[in-house]
Amino acid sequence: MRARWTVGAALAVGALIFAAPLAASAAGPVTFGSSPIVDTVGVLGSRTGDVEKAIDTLYENERVQLFVAYVDVFENPSDAVAWTEDTANANGMGANDYLLAVAVDGRTYYLSAAADSPLSDQQLSEIDQNYIEPALRDEDWAGAAIGAATGLERAVGGDSLDGSTGGSGGSGFFWFFVIGVLVVGVVLFFVLRRRGSSASRGRAAPSGIGALSTAELKQRAGSALVRTDDAVKTSEEELGFAIASYGTEATAGFQKALTEARELLSRGFTLQQKLDDSEPDTEEQQRAWYAQIIENCEKANAALDAQAQAFDALRALEKNAPQAAQATRQAAEAARARLDGVRATLARLSNQYTDAALATIADNPAQAEDRLAFADTALAEADTALAAGKTSDAAVDIRAAEEAVDQAALLLDAVDRLDHDLTEARASFSEAIADLRSDIAAAKALPASADSSGQLASVVASTESVLADVSAKLSADRVNPVEVVQRLEQANTQIDALLGSVRDAEAARQRAQAALTQTLLAARSQLGAAEDFITARRGAVGAEARTRLAEAGRLIVQAESLGAADPAQALAQAQRANQLAGEAIRLAQNDVGGFGGMGGMGGMGAGSGRGGNVAGAVLGGILINSMLGGGGSRGGGGFGGGFGGSSGGSGGRRSPGSFGGSGTRSRRGSGGRF
Questions:
Q1: When you count CB atoms within 10 A of the terminal residue's CB, does the N or C end of the chain come out lower?
Q2: CA 188 to CA 349: how far, in whole Å?
Q3: CA-CA distances (angstroms) from residue 473 to 288, 360, 493?
Q4: Please, where are the H alpha helices in 247-363?
Q5: Partners of 38 in beta bridges
Q6: What is the Cα 288 distance to its own chain's centre?
Q7: Which first-to-last residue range defines the signal peptide (predicted)?
C-alpha cells in the first residue's frame, strides 16, 4: 500500500512538473563557435554527444554540414524563417550548410537551406515531415537533430525519404515521462533550477543584436553590407532589363524602391568607412555604428522586397519566353561581335601602357567570352525547356542568360572606358608639369627670408626630382598614366601648401580649382575602373573593397558639389576619393585572387556540361541552381541568386536573379509548429 501511495504521489508530482509552464526567455540570432550546436536552454543534456556524432557522420559521408540551435523563443526577428535567415547569414553559411533552429517554448522550428542548396524544396519538406517534426512533437530534442542529420544524409546521397522517421528509436515523450517519474526527485531539482535560470534570463539578458559581442556585430554588419550590395547591384541590372521592355512609367515604383535602397546602403558604407579609418573609436561608438549598418541594410532590403512580387509579375518571362530568348540571343551576338575589336584595343593599350595601368581590364575579353558561352548554354537549355512545355524552367535559363550577356557588355565597355580615361589622363600631363615648373620658379624667386627654415628649398628639390622621374617615365615605351598623375598631384599638393602662405587668397583659389579638375579626372577614372571590376566579379568581392568603393563615390559627389564654393576643400575630398578608389581596386583584386578560380568549386563545371564558364558566372555573381547539376540523385541543385538575394521560386529550380532584397531571395527551407 505504501509503495502504491509513493508511486501515485510521484506520478502526481511528475505531472505537475511537466505541466508547469516555464518562463520563456526570448533569444536573438545566435553565433556558432567551434561547435555546430548552440543549446541555450540545455534540452540536449547528456545526448549532446549523440547529436555531434550524427552531425560528424553526415559531414564525413556527404561533406554536408548541419548546425542546430535550441532557444526558448525566437526574437528579433520573431518569425522562425527570418530568425534562421539572419543566423545563417551572420555565420556565413553556404550551399552545403544547413541550419535546424528550434524554439522550445515557442513550439516552432525551421530547417533552413541555402537557395543554391543541392536539395529541392520537396526534399527539404520530406526531411521536415518524416525526420524532424515527429521527434519534436514527442519532445525528443536530440532525436530531432539526429533525424535532420539522417534525412540530409539520405537526401544528399540520393536515397528515398518516404516512410522514414526521425528520432532515436523509442526515446519519445512516453519513456521520457516514465524515466522522469522514476527519478522524480532529481528531475524536480533540475526543472526548478531551470525555471529560476530561465526567469533570470528573461529579466536580465539583453535581446537581439544588443546581446551580441562587438566582434559578432562586426561580422554581421560586414555580411549585411555584402548581401545588400549584391541585392542592389542585381536589382539595378534587372530593373534595366525591365525599363528597356516596359518603359519608365511602368517601372517607376521599382526605381523609387531602388533609389531608397541605394541611399540606405550608402549610409551603411559611410559608417563602415568611419569604423575602418585611422581615427580611434570607442567601444560604444563601434557598437552603435555596427547596429546602424545592420538596420540600414535591413531597411534597404525591405524596400526592395516590398516591390519584389510586383516586379516578378511584371517580368514573368514565361509569358513571353520565346521572344525574350530571341532578344537575349541577339544581344549576345552583338556583344560577341565586339570581342575582336576589344581585343585589338587591349593589344594597342598594352603597347602604350604598363600592366599595372591595365590590371583591372587585362582579362576582360576572356571573362566576356566566358559569360557569352554561359549564355549560349543557358539559351540552349531554354529552347529545350520550351520545346517540352516547361516555360518556368525556360524563364530561369533566359534570366541567367540575360544577366550573363549584360555582364559581358559591361566587361567590354570597361576596356573602351579605360582607354578613354587613360587618354584624358595622358593629355593632362603637359598642364600639370607646366604648373609644377611655374611653382618651382615662384618658389625660387622668393627672398631668402621667406625660407628661414630651409623647408621650401627642400620641397623645391623634391618637386624637381619628381619632374625628372616623370620625364623618364614618359620617355619609356609604356606608361602608367594613373601613377604619373598621382605623383604630379602629390608634388603639386606639397609645394602649393608651402607657397600658399605667400600667395593671395584668390590666386590660391584659382590654383586649387585647376588642381581639382585634374584630380577629379583621375578619381573618376579610378572609380569607374573599380566599379566595373567589382560589378563583373562581385561573386568574390567582400565588404572591405565595396566599402572603399562606396566611400570614394560619395567623396567624388561631395567634391563636385563643393567645387565652385570651396575648391580647396573639394580638392582634398577628390584626393581622398582617388586614394580610396585605388584601395578598392587593390582589395577587390586580392579577393578575386583568393577566390582561387571558384575556391574549390571548379569541379562543378565539368559535370554540368557548361565547362569553365560556370566559374566565370559564379565569379560574376550570376547564381544558378539546377542548371548546374541537371537534377539527378541530388534533386534540383546548383546556385541561386539575383537581384537582392536568392530564395524566390519553388521546388528545386531557383531564379538566378530578380528585383528584391535578401529577404525575398535568400535561404529556403521547411518548418512550422510542433
A1: N
A2: 80
A3: 48, 21, 20
A4: 252-276, 283-315, 321-352
A5: 69
A6: 22
A7: 1-26
Q: What is the pLDDT of residues 568-583, one digit of tens each?
A: 889 999 999 999 999 9
Please report whether residue 95 resides in a domain: yes
Q: How far apart are the first and last CA of the chain?
A: 40
Q: Smallest Cα–Cα separation from 112: which of 79, 88, 142?
A: 88
Residue 84 lies in a domain: yes
Residue of 91, 222, 232 lying closest to 661 (CA atoms) = 232
d(C-alpha 388, C-alpha 248), whole Å: 34
Q: How far apart are CA 462 and CA 470, in angstroms?
A: 12
Within its chain, how far is the Cα of 441 from the centroid?
Answer: 52
Q: Based on the structure, what is the number of domains in the chain?
A: 3
C-alpha–C-alpha distance, residues 657 and 403, integer Å: 8
pTM strictly above 0.90: no
Instruction: With respect to residue 466, please indicate whether it lies within any of the assigned structural domains.
Output: no
| Alpha-carbon torsion, ordered 440, 441, 445, 451, to 10 deg | 0
pLDDT tens column, 533-544? 998 888 788 888
Per-residue model confidence as pLDDT tens digits over 462-495? 888 888 888 888 888 888 888 888 788 888 877 8
Residue type at 667 in one-letter notation: R
What's the pLDDT tens digit per position in 86-115?
A: 888 777 777 788 999 999 998 999 999 887
Any domain includes 20: no
For 256, the domain range is: 212-422
Residues in the chain: 674
Is-contact 112 101, C-beta < 8 A? yes
